[in-house]
Write a structure and sequence with these properties.
The chain is α/β, with parallel strands linked by helices. It is built from 9 helices and 14 strands. The protein folds into 3 domains: about 1-120, Alpha-Beta Complex (Quinone Oxidoreductase, Chain A, domain 1); about 125-270, NAD(P)-binding Rossmann-like Domain (Rossmann fold, 3-Layer(aba) Sandwich), CATH 3.40.50.720; about 275-330, no CATH class. α2 packs parallel to α3 (about 155-165). Bound molecules: NADP nicotinamide-adenine-dinucleotide phosphate. NADP nicotinamide-adenine-dinucleotide phosphate binds next to α2 and α3. The site of NADP nicotinamide-adenine-dinucleotide phosphate (NAP) has 24 residues, from α2 and α3.
């Protein structure tokens, strides 16, 4: 018996195709102490793998000549570990191959409540956990929220929508075909759907979310993210999760890139000072003593005479001011 593997042959230019991969055959490895030999039953294919090929994923790079990586559900067929025995079903990153060796520390037993076992790689696995975390830990959802999710029929998106339905939210899914949209409404129970491939996305969001979007879970980035962002309701929350719009390109779009926010697990919030007028006294009481103790430094860019205002404003907008632009009128 030999071990069949799928190797990355070349870096795709755009969408990957079968020609970018090649099949290899190797000997079946033997486990050492503490290791198990696994026979793969299911292999998960995920969008992040395209990022690994591009060298832009936080989990590292897959180079031409490398075995493709991926999470598997496997059966233990030989064990030199005290933790797992032959016949156990385990999850680990076995890669795109039939047989793999892993240290028992890097494997976990498949939860026997899961049937079929492939669920452990999908809605009950990493993608499901992604959705769960986004909704329950980051989204701060309330039953009154209008929730919009992109790539809604996928493992992540469909779970985001269903967790939000469970909370009592109105849930709208964006998907790329009528078949996907029909499944979201008729099977998954979404309140509404938008097929962004055959209708204008901005108009459809207005139709489905007339009061704006309270929570947007973004799996795509790019123009879709930009379009949704202009229809956020006041106090909206956005979870940036995926980058389907840019995985296949080597030309990174200009402007703030969701990847930087995702990588840093950053929180980005909009600020409008009008919302903080009730903090004015608190602000002064906090800051005036610091000013008096000369712990606050400041500069003013003062022009004399109202007639200087247009010129000072021109300088301000060209960045030629240095400090707070003030016109001393009298
Ligand atoms: N941040 C994290 O930790 C984390 C973890 C897991 C997954 N993710 C991300 O979550 C997203 C969804 O993952 P998934 O596993 O559930 O995948 P998926 O939704 O099953 O598949 C991806 C879907 O993206 C949609 N899509 C939208 N724009 C696209 C474009 N320009 N090109 C190709 N497809 C496009 C397609 O559906 P339509 O036909 O509806 O367009 C496609 O079916 C991915 O971006 C993934 O990278 C992030």
């Amino acid at each position: 018996m030999t071990n069949t593997q799928i190797i990355l042959k070349s870096k795709p230019d755009g969408n990957p195709s079968a020609e970018n991969f090649e099949i290899a055959s190797t000997d079946i490895p033997s486990p050492q102490d503490g290791e198990i030999l696994c026979k793969a039953l299911y292999l998960s294919l995920d969008p992040y793998m395209r990022g690994q090929i591009s060298g832009r994923h936080i989990s590292g790079t897959v180079h031409p000549g490398d075995l493709m990586r991926g999470e598997t559900v496997s059966e233990v067929i030989e064990s030199k570990s005290d933790v797992f025995k032959v016949g156990d079903l385990v999850m680990h990153h076995g890669g795109w191959q039939e047989f793999s060796i892993t240290n028992s520390d890097d494997a976990t037993l498949v939860d026997q409540r899961l049937k079929p076992y492939s669920l452990a790689l999908g809605v009950m696995g990493m993608p499901g956990l992604t959705a769960y975390a986004g909704v329950h830990y980051l989204g701060e959802l309330k039953p009154s929220d209008v929730v919009l999710v992109s790539a809604a029929s996928g493992a992540v998106g469909s779970m985001v929508g269903q967790y939000a339905l469970n909370i009592g939210c109105r849930v709208i899914g964006i998907a790329g075909s009528d078949e996907k949209c029909g499944w979201l409404r008729d099977v998954a129970g979404f309140h509404g759907t938008i097929n962004y491939k055959n209708e204008n996305l901005a108009e459809a969001i207005k139709r489905e979310c007339p009061e704006g979007v309270d929570f947007y879970f973004d799996n795509v980035g790019g123009d879709m993210l930009d379009t949704v962002m202009w229809q956020l309701a006041i106090g909206a929350r956005v979870v940036l999760c995926g980058l389907m719009a840019q995985y296949n390109t080597d030309v990174i779009p200009p402007g703030p890139n969701p990847a930087s926010i995702i990588k840093a697990r950053a929180t980005v919030r909009g600020l409008v000072v009008y919302d903080f007028h009730d903090k004015k006294q608190e602000f002064l009481d906090f800051t005036i003593p610091l000013l008096d103790e000369e712990k606050i430094k400041y500069r003013e860019d003062v022009s004399e005479g109202l007639d200087q205002a247009p010129h000072a404003f021109e300088r301000l907008m060209k960045g030629q001011n240095f400090g707070k632009t003030i016109i001393k009128i009298s």
